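Field log, afternoon session.

UNIT: design team B
ACTIVITY: writing a sequence onto a fixed backbone
BACKBONE:
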């Protein structure tokens, strides 16, 4: 995946100036920057591309951010996910038109907030952290059918914990259908215990 930010030394080399010149531009507000939680400073790729003429400014690109976690216990992770997406969108020069946060399983096809996004037609890019933030299965279908571009910030595999929660949701659904709601919960609990003991 191409970088969306550059180190100051990289920018200086690309623009044939000194790192001090770039730093002075950042401090004076002439050059946009991204500051990480650890205090490191980077320059957005879109700005460098504008200076080198490699691509036009994407500032007209309208972006919707979609962040999802499986459980309400993960609210802190949801906020962190959202902040990361906002920083990414800003670094790319996107216009953030909407920020949507949702709690629900990746296999749940009745997520109302996601449904609302899919009905919208006033944006260009849907920004998500991982593919499975959008859906656990059938991501390619979304890419093919959606009238907007789906941009994934992190292409690496997501957390094992989240996979386990989705697996529990699948087992619960199947057990409920086979044995009824009450017996289904009992069967699910036994299946969860068996999975934990196996680990």
């Amino acid at each position: 995946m191409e970088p969306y930010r550059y180190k100051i030394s990289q920018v200086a080399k690309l623009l044939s100036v000194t790192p001090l010149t770039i730093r002075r531009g950042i401090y004076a507000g002439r050059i946009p920057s991204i500051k990480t939680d650890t205090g490191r400073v980077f320059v957005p790729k879109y700005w460098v591309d504008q200076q080198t003429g490699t691509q036009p400014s994407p500032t007209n690109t309208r972006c919707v951010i979609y962040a999802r976690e499986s459980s309400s216990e993960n609210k802190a992770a949801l906020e962190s996910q959202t902040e990361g997406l906002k920083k990414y969108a800003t670094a790319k020069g996107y216009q953030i038109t909407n920020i949507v946060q949702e709690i629900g399983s990746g296999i749940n096809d009745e997520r109302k907030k996601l449904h609302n996004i899919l009905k919208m037609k006033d944006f260009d890019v849907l920004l998500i952290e991982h593919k499975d933030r959008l859906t656990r299965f059938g991501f390619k279908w979304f890419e093919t059918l959606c009238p907007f571009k789906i941009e994934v910030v992190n292409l690496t595999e997501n957390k094992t914990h989240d996979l386990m929660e989705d697996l529990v949701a699948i087992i619960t659904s199947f057990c409920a259908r086979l044995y009824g709601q009450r017996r289904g919960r009992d069967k699910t609990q036994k299946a969860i215990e068996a999975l934990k003991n196996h680990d």
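LOG NOTE: The chain has three domains: 5-52, 62-152, 160-198.
NEXT ACTIVITY: expression trials, pending approval
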